[in-house]
Amino acid sequence: MSRTTYREALRQGLREALARDPRVFLMGEDVGRYGGTYAVSKGLLEEFGEQRIRDTPLSELAFVAAGIGAALGGLRPIVEVMTVNFSLLALDPLMNTAATLRHMSGGQFSVPLVVRMATGAGRQLAAQHSHSLEGWYAHIPGLRILAPATLEDARGMLWPALQDPDPMLLFEHGALYNLEGELDEREVVDIHSARVRRAGTDLTLIAYGGTLGKALSAAEQLAGEGISAEVLDLRVLRPLDDATILASVRRTRRALVVDEGWRSGSLSAEIIARIVEQAFYDLDAPPARVCSLEVPIPYAKHLEEAALPQVPGIVAAAKGLLG
Amino acid sequence: MIAPVPYPQDFALGLLHDMLRIRRLEERAAELYGEGKIRGFLHLYIGEEAVAVGALHALAADDAVVATYREHGHALLQGVPMNAIMAEMYGRQAGCSHGRGGSMHLFDARTRFFGGNAIVAGGLPLAVGLALAERMLGGNRLTACFFGEGALAEGAAAESLNLAALWQLPVLFCCENNLYAMGTALARSQAQTDLCAKVQAFGVPARSVDGMDVVAVHEATRAAVEQVHAGHCPCFLEFRTYRFRAHSMFDPELYRDKAEVEEWKKRGPIHSYSAQLKAQGLLDEPGFLALEAEAAAEVEAAVAFAEAASLEPVETLMNDVYTPERSP
Asked: What sections of the sequence does the record tag as coiled-coil (chain B) (predicted)?
């Protein structure tokens, strides 16, 4: 165990990957001299040099697509996109090339690319830096979507992601970078399963990324009121780990999804649909969800807080489920 | 008339033969489209053959090629078997993309043919990435990227040209300027119609070439390949060419005069090149007919192959959305 932050854990994962495999390199805006927009890659330029820590122009489309090309050419690129909002400039190569190439070529070309980006709100960055669009990406066959919410996952998801031959999108919630705690270096990290972060018997809170901490806080409050909430961390948003989700919900018979994405056509909708399709007769109450309000995320602190899932809202929704 | 052909007879006739192979393949594909054997979009390269033939004969066999949705000729010249191309257009299992791609998405890992990209300008940044990998892995192969002049209106092209120049990557950008982006003439869509000037502004050396003259294309490409290797830099060639047929099989061609098409046809690359070969005594009419017959026979064999090829079983539909775990 060692004391560290989510940011440092990500950097540790990057450093280990760069040291282990000479084909791995990092590119993106300000990853080198600036040290990374969120300081994740600070110091790596000095350690690994300009060839492997590449500052790019402000050309999201080209450097993401060049990452695809470099992956086809035999490298293992890690592409950093500053925020998920900017990744929309690269939606074409991600959707039309990375996700399609293997199938469209009849299985000839895999794309072993990892794209990291910040997602989510909570830092008063307003409507062009704060959205949670990972649910959109989770819609796309051919991509794998990861959402590390713990120090262990921040450090440990990158290496197995690089070992995977298919394109992998890794979403780092912006509010987590300063998360501090004890990192368990012995924990084995996979990129396939959801995980129970707190065991409980009365209902399951299903969360990921930036909402995991809020769900855990809500569970703690609920415990004080005699309600035993299980907290499930999705970790992998595509493909969803149905088995673990359903096993938990069948046990607790109640499900509440906490998703910072918008409600309509969302990841939360997909999860609830799967629960209803597969575990309808095991439920004691209709599944429920706490999502962001359907508004562009505003700047002012009190407005932003009101737009996002918050602990009191989660607690109230949980109590509502228990009647 | 075009310039004298400076090549030995074998090579000179090889260029003609390859243009005929592409022409005949596509004429037959158009017929098969009419018969309903080939569906989806079918974009014909007829009129532009001198570009693919002249350029690809200047590349090394292991150079990478990235092309567009008008890529039958490039695939064929890069070494994708005609049988596999025809079977792909038929949507058959023996197709080079197992029936997943069709006419617009021919792929072949063996010959380093990276598609078959139907997003205009989508191939440029991909080529930049392939060249980046080659540079970082210490290789010496270049990446040739074909695209139309319409691609230069896309942000992806501007970003890619900048990135290739900034990182001095071995990309040969081959612009097939056939004057129309689908139905929109160059001057109606780009304020700067001097494409070389536009590209030079990014710091990429650029040159304009008569794309109807296979010799001019070949010589310019050879020089550009040398420049890429010697200068460790990208290079851009504008091939001025013309599409004789419609954009796709759905195009009624309302946007250009028939007289303009006829005028360009007079400069048809096969016609003018074979006339020059005859003038130089490198070819006679029976020789021409023999080459044509050989191309036609290859095409008919490919049609027979595709007709006989089996359909990909529906049970395999979901294969290759992800890589099977056994693969490295």
From this structure: none
ipTM: 0.96
* Distance between CA atoms of residues B144 and B117, nearest Å: 14
Tokens of A68: 């695809």
Q: Does residue A162 share a domain with residue A30?
A: yes
pLDDT of B139 higher than 80: yes
For residue B133, give the nearest of A69, A104, A166 by CB distance: A69
**Which listed residue (A8, A29, A129, A173) is catalytic?**
A129
A143 in the same domain as A217 = no
**Whether residues A179 and A199 fall in one domain:** no
Average pLDDT over residues B89-96: 98
Tens digits of residue pLDDT in A206-226:
999 999 999 999 999 999 999
The torsion angles phi and psi of B274, rounded to 5 degrees, stand at -70, -35
Chain B hits for A67, CB-CB cut-off 8 Å, are: 129
**Model confidence at B326: pLDDT above 70:** no
Pair (A80, A167) in one structural domain: yes
For residue B214, give both structure tokens.
């296979």
pLDDT band of B2, cuts 50, 70, 90: confident
pTM (2 decimals)?
A: 0.96
Which of A7, A64, A61, A62 shows the shortest CA–CA distance to A36?
A7
Chain A interface includes B244 (CB < 8 A): no
B68: its two tokens: 């567009």
- Regarding whether A291 and A171 lie in a shared domain, the answer is no
Q: What does the DSSP assignment read for B274-296?
A: HHHHHHTTS--HHHHHHHHHHHH
Mean per-residue pLDDT of chain B: 96
Domain shared by A238 and A172, yes or no: no
Q: What is the CATH number of the domain that holds B86?
A: 3.40.50.970
- pLDDT band of B1, cuts 50, 70, 90: low
- Structural domain range at position A68: 2-183
For the stretch B227-283, pLDDT in tens is 999 988 999 999 999 999 998 888 889 999 999 999 999 999 999 999 999 999 999
- Residue A252 located in a structural domain: yes
Does the distance separating the beta carbons of A72 and B130 come in below 8 Å?
yes
A131: annotated active-site residue:
no
| Tens-digit pLDDT profile for residues B102-125 | 999 999 999 999 999 999 999 999
Residue given tokens 């690994």 in the structure block: A48
From its phi and psi, is residue B102 left (phi > 0), alpha (psi between -120 and 50) or beta? Answer: left
pLDDT surpasses 50 at B148: yes
The answer to whether residues A62 and A179 belong to one domain is yes
Taking an 8 Å cut-off on Cβ atoms, the answer to whether B126 and A56 are in contact is: no
Domain residue limits at B167? 9-308
Sheet holding A203-207, edge to edge: A195-198, A229-233, A203-207, A255-262, A288-292
What is the domain count for chain B?
A: 1
Number of compact structural domains in chain A: 2
A104 touches chain B (CB under 8 A): yes
Q: Above 50 in pLDDT, residue A63?
A: yes
Residue of B nearest to A54 (CA): B167
Contact list, B69 vs chain A (CB under 8 Å): none
Query: Which chain B positions have a beta carbon within 8 Å of A48's beta carbon?
Result: none
Q: B310 touching A, CB under 8 A?
A: no
Q: Is the peptide bond before A296 cis (omega within 30 degrees of 0)?
A: no
Whether residues B162 and A63 touch (CB distance < 8 A) is answered with no
- What's A14's domain CATH number? 3.40.50.970
Beta strands in chain B (DSSP E): 64-68, 113-117, 143-148, 171-177, 180-181, 184-185, 206-210, 235-240
